[in-house]
């Protein structure tokens, strides 16, 4: 649990170093003097982990696929779990209920990315260099859900699922929520001819090939597949209606999809958040 939280919370350091002196005063973009970071400027921003470079020849790891939501100047949610933090100079300190504060050193950062060092994070003393990416917020007007507006490359930033029981009688019952980032940079290339290519930044490391498939837009829903037992890579005719996902948000830079399913004793909601790759 300690390693999981430390990797995930590293995104906070990006939130407090991602500044540009030529940028207007917007949340997450306020200029700061290096080493003097103001937490209040970044409340409401979101971050994900991309990968971790493990020292002493340990290679690159995609874990832990963390999604981070900055709630306040002292509080954050990591994949839905609460934690506290503080910034002193170029050091980020994380504190959970189970742990003593753990320091992370800010190595470099800009408005969209950061590298943070956790010294001696492994038992053998190897360091971990953690790479983070900020999740873009929707910009510009809402767009019609059609093929022209979706065509192009999109990165799946994070996924969220909500399981709600129909039978649980506990008055304190709350739906089970799971939210996490993706391992590596997962890109969906929705091509104008209706074909789809799915790639991941770890494909080269794992010697994996891009996945290919199809996609289509119909009645404000997005249908696509790259080949699974339930969703084959060859488009069926007709396409089953329950394969579609609703496009709840579509702007020039962000697409959010939503799907709701019911079962005998529970329901499931699935939310995926994509940002356009320029």
Descriptive overview:
By secondary structure, the chain is mostly beta strands. 8% of the residues lie in helices and 46% in strands. The protein contains 4 helices and 17 strands. Residues 11-32 have low confidence and may be disordered.
Overall radius of gyration: 20 Å
Helix content: under 10%
How are the strands of the biggest sheet laid out side by side?
1-3-4-5-6-7-8-9
Coarse shape: globular
Strand content: over 45%
Low-confidence stretches: 11-32
| Structure class | mainly beta
DSSP helical segment count: 4
Q: Name the average pLDDT.
A: 82
Give me the strand/helix succession. Answer: HHEEEEEEEEEHEEEHEEEEE
Distance between the termini: 36 Å
Number of strands: 17
Main pleated sheet: 8 strands, antiparallel, barrel
Question: What topology emerges from the helices and strands here?
Answer:
Elements lengths: L1 H8 L1 H5 L30 E9 L4 E3 L5 E4 L4 E4 L2 E8 L2 E5 L6 E8 L3 E6 L9 E7 L12 H4 L1 E14 L10 E15 L4 E6 L2 H4 L4 E8 L2 E5 L19 E6 L3 E9 L3 E11 L2
List the defining traits of the structure above:
single chain, 278 residues, mainly beta, eight-stranded antiparallel beta barrel, eight-stranded antiparallel barrel, 4 helices, 17 strands, 46% strand, globular
Brief sketch in words of this structure:
With 278 residues, the protein is mainly beta. Helices cover 8% and strands 46% of the residues.
């Amino acid at each position: 649990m300690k390693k999981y939280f430390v990797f995930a919370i590293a995104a906070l350091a990006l939130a407090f170093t991602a500044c540009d002196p030529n940028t207007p005063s917007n949340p997450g973009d306020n200029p700061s003097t290096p080493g003097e970071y103001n937490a209040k400027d970044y409340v409401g921003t979101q971050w994900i982990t991309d990968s971790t470079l493990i020292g002493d020849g340990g290679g690159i790891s995609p874990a832990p696929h963390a999604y981070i939501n900055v709630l306040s100047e002292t509080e954050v949610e990591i994949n839905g779990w609460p934690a506290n933090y503080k910034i002193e100079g170029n050091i980020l300190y994380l504190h959970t209920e189970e742990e003593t504060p753990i320091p992370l050193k800010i190595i470099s950062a800009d408005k969209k990315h950061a590298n943070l060092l956790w010294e001696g994070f492994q038992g053998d003393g190897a360091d971990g260099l953690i790479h983070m990416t900020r999740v873009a917020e929707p910009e510009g007007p809402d767009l019609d859900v059609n093929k022209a507006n979706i065509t192009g490359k999109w990165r799946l930033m994070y996924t969220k699922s909500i399981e709600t029981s129909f039978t649980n009688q506990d008055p304190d019952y709350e739906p089970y929520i799971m939210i996490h980032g993706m391992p590596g940079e997962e890109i969906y290339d929705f091509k104008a001819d209706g074909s789809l290519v799915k790639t991941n930044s770890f494909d080269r490391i794992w010697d994996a090939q891009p996945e290919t498939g199809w996609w289509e837009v119909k009645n404000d829903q997005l249908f696509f597949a790259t080949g699974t037992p339930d969703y084959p890579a060859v488009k069926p005719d007709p396409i089953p209606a329950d394969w579609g996902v609703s496009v709840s948000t579509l702007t020039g830079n962000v697409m959010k999809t939503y799907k709701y399913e019911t079962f005998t004793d529970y329901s499931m909601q699935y939310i995926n958040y994509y940002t356009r790759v320029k």
